């Protein structure tokens, strides 16, 4: 299976966990294609099936900022430290490239994700009404 198809399938699996569901917010085909074409992606496979990925846009080396667009761990593989491992690998990669900041946006009603990122050292830097902008100095 191509990476773009694997990403789409995993996004579809978790779509209902977003408010509104991810399938109502974006076209999964287009979003998966954008991730594959424009993002730096760290993946984890189990038995040749994509079970997790983190994707970040690293296209602003002058500002030395990167932006996580998506972190997904399949429902059956949560609680195993996979998200932590992927984000840590991304941070190490960004540090080698000379990036100094890693940002992301998270819905305010997603307390699990907020706590996950706070545990990794991210800080909430801006309230965007129904979401927060978070930053980690790397």
Structure description:
It is a single chain. This protein has 5 helices and 6 strands; from the N terminus they run αααβββαβαββ. It is of the alpha+beta class. It has a single domain (38-137), classed as Gcn5-related N-acetyltransferase (GNAT) (Aminopeptidase), CATH 3.40.630. Strands 1-2-3-4-6-5 form a 6-stranded mixed sheet, sandwiched between helices. The N and C termini lie far apart (34 Å). The mean pLDDT is 96.
Short description:
By secondary structure, the protein is an alpha+beta fold. Helices cover 38% and strands 34% of the residues.
Which characteristics define this entry?
6-stranded mixed sheet, single chain, Aminopeptidase, 138 residues, globular, 5 helices, alpha+beta
Helix content: 25-40%
Do you know the CATH topology? Answer: Aminopeptidase
Looking at CATH, the homologous superfamily is Gcn5-related N-acetyltransferase (GNAT)
Q: What is the total domain count?
A: 1
Computed CA radius of gyration, to the nearest angstrom = 14 Å
Q: What separation lies between the terminal Cα atoms?
A: 34 Å
Total count of strands: 6
Q: What composes the largest sheet?
A: 6 strands, mixed
Provide the spatial order of strands within the biggest beta sheet: 1-2-3-4-6-5
- State the assembly state of the protein chains: single chain
In percent, how much strand structure appears in the residues? Answer: 25-35%
What is the level-2 CATH architecture name?
3-Layer(aba) Sandwich
H and E string: HHHEEEHEHEE
CATH hierarchy, class: Alpha Beta
Low-confidence stretches: none
| Count of alpha/pi helices | 5
């Amino acid at each position: 299976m191509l990476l773009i198809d694997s990403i789409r399938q995993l996004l579809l699996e978790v779509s209902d966990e977003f408010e509104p569901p991810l399938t109502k917010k974006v076209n999964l085909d287009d979003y998966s294609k954008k991730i594959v074409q424009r993002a730096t992606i760290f993946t984890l496979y189990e038995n040749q099936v994509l079970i997790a990925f983190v994707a970040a846009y690293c296209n602003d080396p002058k500002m030395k900022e990167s932006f996580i667009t998506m972190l997904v761990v399949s429902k059956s593989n949560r609680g195993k430290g996979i998200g932590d491992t992927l984000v840590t690998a991304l941070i190490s990669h960004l540090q080698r490239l000379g990036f100094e900041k890693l940002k992301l946006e998270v819905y305010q009603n997603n307390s699990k994700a907020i706590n996950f990122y706070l545990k990794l050292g991210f800080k909430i830097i801006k309230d965007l009404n129904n979401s927060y902008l978070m930053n980690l100095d790397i």
